[in-house]
Specification:
Layout lengths: L2 E5 L2 E4 L4 E8 L2 E12 L5 E7 L5 E3 L7 E6 L4 E6 L8 E11 L4 E4 L3 E6 L1
Parallel strand pairs: 2-11
Antiparallel strand pairs: 1-3, 3-8, 4-5, 4-9, 5-6, 7-8, 9-10, 9-11
Amino acid sequence: QVQLVESGGGLVQAGGSLRLSCAASGSIFRINAMGWYRQALGKQRDLVATITSGGRTNYADSVKGRFTISRDNGKNTMYLQMNSLRPEDTAVYYCNADILSTSPIRAYWGQGTQVTVSS
């Protein structure tokens, strides 16, 4: 079974930094695009950033210049470096990946990690 597990969330003051990780495990043949999404309380889940297997990135306007997405294909792991955090960044952060395993390629989601930014 393929699993995505996020880590690195927590409580931080405004202006601080956090680094999230998302590790994929299981019988994985290939991981295509990966991405981070977030969902604040009472709101819809929104895209934060995506990265292709070749390293091409895309960011939501609200995080450009503050967040950096990266991945280590050898470790099947994706990261999100978050700097200059703001209270409005408070949300549950989810990782997503398109994975080909012993099952046909499909999108997988992690369980989420809470990020709380205090003012």
